[in-house]
Amino acid sequence: MISRELAIPGAFVFEPESFPDDRGFFVSPFEESEFTKSVGHPPFPVAQVSYSVSRRGVVRGPHFTRTPPGVAKYVYSPRGRVLDVVVDLRLGSPAFGRWESVLLGDESQRAVYLPVGVAHMFVALQDESVMTYLLSSEYVPANELAISPFDPGLALPVPEDVEPILSARDQQAPTLAEAKRTGLLPDYEKSLAIEAALCPW
Q: What is the residue range of the signal peptide feature (predicted)?
């Protein structure tokens, strides 16, 4: 497995080695040793594992968790093809307002680690695309927030050749500037402290 840090501090992409044969293939999208070496601390205790199935054009996010309590995520797509996007919403972060995208899916089996305080979005590029999530805390609807994927100030990479399909919540999500003005955005230093408490070393 190889890894690299994204343009968002603390966010990483992991690319595992795949072992194909005439039966199919075998792959391990998560390895504790590589995670610890790359991120600099052990992985968080997993409180919930979830997955979504999306048809082509579905846009989910950018979603983030009210911080505190905050949540860290490790995500990958075992089937299909998705454009995964990490957005830094942490006030005070050196990369505040920046994003980076990574192509995930069954061809690469890449995975992405999202630290506490950053937002996650993806665009399904194929029907029946699956996204798997390992979460540091259980899903609490009242704590889940969103930013508009079409915020012109962010200019997120929604491909022009797909017809976007959004939930009602995501259609009504505020821009980054609106979220900042209303006090919804996480603080960088507080996010780092929460992550450190999740992953003691």
A: none
Structural domain boundaries enclosing 104: 2-198
- How far apart CA 23 and CA 152 sit, in angstroms, is 46
CB 28 within 8 A of CB 86: no
Sign of CA dihedral 161, 167, 168, 172: negative
Specify burial of residue 96 (Cβ count, 10 A radius: 0-12, 13-18, 19+).
Answer: middle
Helix (H) or strand (E) holding 79: strand 73-79
What is the Cα–Cα distance from 95 to 112, expressed in whole angstroms?
17
Cross-strand partners of 2: 15
Catalytic residue positions? 63, 133
The CA–CA distances, whole Å, from 104 to 158, 167, 175 equal 15, 22, 26
Q: What single-letter DSSP state applies at residue 29?
A: S
Burial of 2 (0-12, 13-18, 19+ CB in 10 A): exposed
Helix (H, G, I), strand (E, B), or coil: what is residue 44? coil
pLDDT digits (tens, 9 = 90+) for 127-176: 999 999 999 999 999 999 999 999 999 999 999 999 999 999 999 999 99
Domain count, the chain: 1
pTM: 0.95
- Report residue 64: phi and psi, to 5°: -150, 165
Q: Is the Cβ–Cβ distance between 90 and 156 less than 8 Å?
A: no
